[in-house]
Amino acid sequence: MTIDRASLQALKLSEIRDSMTEFDLYLDLGGEIVPYANGPHRWSADETEQLLQSGQFVLLYNRADADRVRSYLANRDGAPCVPASDASHQLADGISEFLKTLYAVRFPEEHYSLVKGLTVALDKFLQAYPQLSDLLLRLVQHDPYTFYHSARVAGYSVALGLALRGPDEARLWDMAMGSFLHDIGNLSVSKDILNHAGSLNDAEWNQIRQHPEEGLKLLEEIPLTRTVRDIIFYHHERLDGGGYPRRLRGSMLSMELRIVSFADVYTALTVPRCYQKARTPAEAIQFIEDHLLNFLDPKILHAMRRLLAVQGGQLSQIAG
Ligand SMILES: [Fe+2]
User: Fold this and answer.
1) How far apart are CA 68 and CA 61, in angstroms?
2) pTM for the whole thing?
């Protein structure tokens, strides 16, 4: 039986509870979609553990079942199958957030296996460098918003990288890793400042503006590429020279850097914070077009519009 990949949506394994699902589920095994659960399926912690161990972070379901999935998520009971306190599962949750973000936009099916390979490589790299895993886990504890925000930025950056630069694996690795780590320096910013609702005083702003440099210091011992380090250090630089920490401008900013900066801003606009309501994708695109094109690259805005299928201020239905 051939399964139409375009008709599937992603469901994070961490969203499954020790309970019953009543819709068909599939796995993506290196680009090949295989049926996993046909109809009613009783879940257990052992089963999700096994799936996570084998590198499966997301399940796929038919868009036609979107209402049933929504209803399951709203009404599920039972304990989380993935305990929130378990370190390896928290990292897996970040990686599944990355995949979920990617699967929610339109990128060509021919790149699915490349993305899967990239995901497994990211997971292996985190396991190979415990210092890096420890830093990310400290970030989850310190500011969960930054951790999940970074995973989503990685998803959009890879999708934009594929759209604008093609399937260059080394470049995509740099953008994914750079995105995951771009705000690791927030570990040095107090929680109160990170979640501050009003305006910040000079001392507080100074602390914020240090986070790119603090991030690089924290990662000194990890073998990261020059591009990844540049993404961490320069992700707040802007095309018009109004960014920080070096006030770079125009052609001094690489395409990789511009893509991650764009994804960072877009993601921040579309997620609710204590000080702002989330914009819809169409509203975020419009906001960037109206207010931010002095410092974000219009080419990337156009690519993002295509990925989201946003036309004339409207977002066509792409999610289930
Ligand atoms: Fe940042």
Assistant:
1) 10
2) 0.80
Alpha helix locations (H) across 10-167? 45-53, 66-75, 87-103, 112-128, 130-142, 144-165
Q: How far is the centre of ligand 1, averaged over its atoms, from the C-alpha of 212 (Å)?
A: 7
CA–centroid distance, 299 to ligand 1, in Å, is: 22
Tell the residue number behind the tokens 């886990």, with chain if given.
137
CA atoms of 225 and 150, how far apart (whole Å):
18
| 282 C-alpha to ligand 1 centroid (Å) | 23
Task: Write out pLDDT tens, residues 84-139.
Answer: 456 677 888 899 899 889 888 888 888 888 988 899 899 889 888 989 999 999 99
Give distance in angstroms: CA of 185 to centre of ligand 1: 8
Q: In degrees rounded to 5, what are phi and psi of residue 27?
A: -120, 150
Every domain of the chain and the residues it spans: 5-75, 87-315
What's the distance, CA 129 to chain centroid? 21
CATH class of residue range 87-315: mainly alpha
Separation of CA 302 and ligand 1 centre (Å): 23
Q: What is the pLDDT of residues 17-59, one digit of tens each?
A: 778 899 999 988 767 788 899 999 998 878 887 787 676 778 8
